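Task: encode each sequence below as C-alpha cells.

Item 1
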Amino acid sequence: MAADATRALLWAPLAWLPGGWRESVVLRADGDGRWAEVTSDVAIAPEGARVLSGALLPGVVDAHSHAFQRAFVGGAERREAASDDFWSWRERMYTVALRIGPAQLRAVAAQLYVELLRGGYTHVCEFHYLRRDRDGSEHADPLAMSWALADAAADAGIGLTILPVLYERAGFATDALREDQRRFRSSPAETFGAAQRIRAAARPLVDSGLAIHSLRAASAASIAALATVADGFAGPVHIHVAEQTGEVDECIAATGVRPIEWLVREGRLDARWQLVHATHSTAQEIAAVAASGAGIVLCPSTEANLGDGLCDLPGWLGAGVPMTIGSDSQATRHWCEELRLLEYGQRLARRERNVAAAPEFGVPSSAERLVSRMLAGCAAAAGQPTWGLVAGARADALVVDPRADALLGVAPGRSLDALVFSGPTALWRDVMVAGRWVVRDGVHADALAIGARFAGAMAELG
C-alpha cells in the first residue's frame, strides 16, 4: 500500500462524536495510529492542523465478510430451475470455493478491500472457513489462506480481524462434511490454534477472533470443546445463526429448541459473542440475548439477495442489543446502502415509515439511530478496545465529500439522513486507517494495480 502518513493534527468543521454532531473539532493522532485528543468547539484551527473540507465520521467495521465470494458477485442472478433459494445459491457458490487458491484469494480480497474502503469501511472481520487446499488436504502452511487475506489487507490498507471457523459436518443429521465442503474442515483445536498463531504473528492492523460456522455445522460437543480451550480468550466469537427458516426447523427437529434459544440454554453467550444474521427470532430470544451482552451482525444486502427474510429490527433496537453491519457475500460494499436497505425492508413489511427512529428517546432520525447503534457495536465485533472519534480509539475516519450530489443543499444537521437515504453516490472524499490516508480525494493509490491483479484472478477462475 502506497499511502502517505497523515498529518497528526486535523480540524473538522463538523464531526460525528458519541452523542451526535459536534462543531469545530480538533483531532490529534499519536504515533501508534490512535486518537490522542478529540476536542470540540475549537473555533480556530490550531497552527499546523489540516483543515478538512467536509464533515468527519468514524470509519465503520464490516463485521461479517466472506472475501472469496467477491469472485461470485453477479454469478448467481439467473434462475434455470423451477425455484431458487439460499440452498441452491450455496451449491453454485461452492464451485468458486473449490477453485480459488491463495494467490487468487489475495487478488480478489485486495480488490474487495479497496471497494470496502471506498464504501466507508476501515476494518473488516473475515469469517474464514476456506481453509484447506483444493483437494481437502492441508497446505504446506495450514494458514496459507489466512495469510493471503492478511496480505490483501496490507495491500489495500484496511484493518482486519480473521475469524478461523469451526466447521466439521454438513448438517444436524450427519457427522461429516460433504465432498464439496472438503476445504472447510476444522476441529476445535485447529480453529483455536489458528487464532492464536494469527495473533502471535502481530502483523500491523491484523488480529484474530473465533467463529463457529453454525449449529448445523458443528456438534454440541465440539462447540463445548472450543469454549473450553478458548476460556479466557479475549477476542470476539462469531456464529451464523437463524438465517434461514429451514435452519430453524432443522434445529428444532434435532435439538427441540430454536437456534438462538439453544445458545441461550447452553449458557454460551456473553459480550464476546456476535450472532450473525439472527433473522428469525422470538421476543424471548431477543430478551435473552440482551441480558447476555452478546451482539448481532445484520447483513441486509445479502439477506435480501438470498431471500432470507427480515429481522425484527424494532425488537433488537428496543432491547438495546449491540448491532453491527456486514457485507457478507459482497452484494454491496457500502455501509450506507446496507442501512438504507435495512430500514426500507422494514418499511415494506410494516407499511410504515422511519421504523428505526425513536422520537420518544429524542432520536427522530432513523439514520442517526442506526448509525449510532452500528458504531457502538464496532469495537466488540472486531475485538478492538474502543471505536469512534474518541481518545484511545484507532485513528480511523471518513471525510464526507461536500461535492457529493446527495449532500448538495442539505443542512449540516441532516447530513446523516442524506448520506443514508439520498441514493448511491460517491460520499467519501478521504479515508483514514490508523492515522494514514488510504483514500485521498476519492482515489486509492494502488487501485489500478490491485484491479489488474483481480481481473487476472477472475480470468483464471473462469
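Item 2
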Amino acid sequence: MLTRTAGVELAPHNILVVGVAPGAVATPINQVTMKDRTLMARLEAAIPLGRMATTNEISKVVAFLASDAASYITASTIVVDGGMMQQSPGL
C-alpha cells in the first residue's frame, strides 16, 4: 500500500498518489466462497450492501481517480467495500 508520505512528497510535482482498497469482488479468487451457499451468506451478511462488488464497479472507481474530476485527491486510500469495514464482524 502506498503511504500518505509518498502522496505528500510527490504532490509538489503534480503526481497524485491514491490507493484503491476493494472489498470482496466477484472474481476467480473468490470462487470457493461463491460456490458455497453458507460462506456466501456469511459474507453477504457482513457487507451492508449485501453483495460482492463487480469488477466493473471497482474499475469505475479507478477510472474516476484517473480522471480530471479527481485532480485534487492525493495521499489517500479509497475503500470500495460496500461498507464492510465499517461493521466487520471479524471475518
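Check on item 2: Residues 4-79 form a domain with the Rossmann fold fold (CATH 3.40.50.720). The first strand starts at residue 18 and ends at 22.
End of task.
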